[in-house]
Amino acid sequence: MLGTALVVVRGFRSIDLVRRERDHDVEFMTLMWFDTLDGVKEFKGEDYEAAHVPMQAQAVLADFDERAAHYEVLDHREQPR
Fold it and tell me: Which of 25, 42, 44, 73 is a plausible cystine mate for 48, CB 3.0–4.6 Å?
C-alpha cells in the first residue's frame, strides 16, 4: 500500500502509516525512516523538503502538507516483547 519502490533507496529503513480520528475528519501521517538525511535526499532529490504524496493518495485526500518535516532520532529503544 505504501510503495515497494522504497526498498531500493540506500539508507531507507521502513515506513509507517498512522491515523487518528478527529471531530470532523480522519488524519493520516506517514513516517519514513532513513539512516541519514542523505538517504532522504537520494529519495527526494534537491528539494528534499517537498512532501512525497503519490498521485493515488492525492486523489482521495481532502488536503495534505506540501512540505515535509525532518527530524533527527536522538534515542531509539526497542522494547522486550
Answer: 44
- The residues near 9 (Cβ < 8 Å, ≥ 6 apart) are 34, 39, 42, 43
Cell triple for 65: 502538507
What nine digits make up the cell of 18?
Answer: 498512522
Q: What is the pLDDT of residues 12-39, one digit of tens each?
A: 998 899 999 999 999 999 999 999 999 9
The helix/strand/coil state of 46 is: coil
Q: Is 76 left (phi over 0), alpha (psi -120 to 50) or beta?
A: beta
CA dist., res. 47 & res. 28, Å (int)? 23
**Which residue in 32, 24, 64 sits closest to 48, CA to CA?**
32
Sort 34 into a burial class: Cβ within 10 Å, 0-12 / 13-18 / 19+: buried
- Residue length, the chain? 81
